[in-house]
Amino acid sequence: MAPIAVAFLWAGDAYKAMFKDHQPNAIALILAAVLAVAGLLFASLLNIKYGDLGTPVLSVTSGTAISFLLFAVARAYAATGSVPPLVHQLAAGSLVIMFAHPLVYVPLRGAMPDWVLLLVTLMVSWGLYMLIQRSGRWPRRIFAGDSN
């Protein structure tokens, strides 16, 4: 996974450099949206876990496109001067889900239908986020991205 992480770090740095002083233009956002939708529609084909040599490149491309769209949305909110509390909670909760889901998903894979496993994984991960939010300051900073 290290090469994939490096690709996402590079993409984030490139995004920051390209759109440092201005918003991305409409063509870039439309292209990113098309790539993101294509990635979502063909997720099973583009999944890095199933991929061989060529497929991870497409998966990283669609993941990067989705990330660019999320960056653009975040920048639009930042430009208004405030981020709604719900958006902040969803972002922090998503970070916890990203780290916690393998602890739930991997041991239970195959024990229940996929849609039930998805719901259980999300509920347990979100519950962990809620516990972290009620904990002291350093767990919130490390696991939930809280800078306060």
Element-by-element helix/strand order = HHHHHHH
Helix-strand category: mainly alpha
Q: How far is it from the N-terminal to the C-terminal residue, by CA?
A: 30 Å
Largest sheet: none
Strand content: under 5%
Please give the domain count: 2
- Report the radius of gyration as a whole number of Å: 17 Å
Note the overall shape.
Answer: globular
Give the integer mean of the pLDDT values: 68
Tell me roughly what share of residues is in helical segments: over 70%
Kindly state the number of beta strands. Answer: 0
The unreliable regions are: 50-54
Q: Count of helices?
A: 7
Task: Give an overview of the whole structure.
With 148 residues, this protein is mainly α. The chain folds into 2 domains: 82 residues, no CATH class; 65 residues, no CATH class. The protein contains 7 helices and no strands. The radius of gyration is 17 Å and the shape is globular. About 3% of the residues have low confidence.
Short description:
This protein is mostly helical and 148 residues long.
Characteristic key phrases:
single chain; 148 residues; mainly alpha; 7 helices; 77% helix
Topology, pairings included?
Elements: H1 2-18, H2 26-41, H3 43-46, H4 55-79, H5 85-108, H6 114-134, H7 137-143
Helix pairs in contact: 1-4, 2-4, 5-6
